[in-house]
Amino acid sequence: MRAIGGLWRWRHNPLRRTTDLVEAWVALTALLVILLVAPVLGSVVGTLAQETLQQAVREQRHSRHQVTATVVRELEGSVLEADPEAAGRESRTRLLADWTAPDGTPHHGTVLADLKAPRRGDHFPLWTDTHGRLVARPLDAATATTHAVIAGFGAALLTAGLVESVRRLVVRSMVRRRYARWDQAWDRAGPDWGRTGTGS
After folding, report:
1. CA distance 143 to 85
2. Mean pLDDT across the chain, nearest whole number?
3. What CA–CA distance (Å, rounded) separates 135 from 106?
4. What angle do CA 78, 81, 83 make, to 5 degrees?
5. How far apart, in Å, are the Cα atoms of 85 and each of 143, 147, 163, 197?
6. What is the value of pTM for the model shown?
7. Residue among 133, 140, 84, 139 at smallest CA distance from 111
């Protein structure tokens, strides 16, 4: 919101310098870009992310299948592990299990399951590809939308931050030039500028 601070420099004042007016225009331009361009860019990025993620959701639903696996046994020294895909970081147990792939081939291997006290013969759901290889559960549409919204907000905030950074760099450069001109003016005034009787 510092961009608004430069707008006061438009007021009529005999002491107003050209750089003050330029600073006001820079502030107004930055404010308009932040208010108009950043939301549009965020919306475009969010829409593109939504289309891409929803396409990924459709592809994953087509290529990933939920099958029922059967517990053979809990592995020795099995430690409860957190499922990185689970919303609440649910604990999962390592098991040896059997399952049949969607293409009909039988499979046997180590998997993670939500079962707290697994027993031989217990059934649990498992996600596989068409050939029975283990895969993560497919992305759901709501999660994809959430990611797209976050991407849109992130793009808008990044744009606003970038514009504000450029504005500050421009203003800082103008202030440095202004100070350099003041130093030159002091140098021209000479070392005796304040002494009584100088030059008489």
Report:
1. 11
2. 83
3. 16
4. 140
5. 11, 14, 36, 85
6. 0.66
7. 133
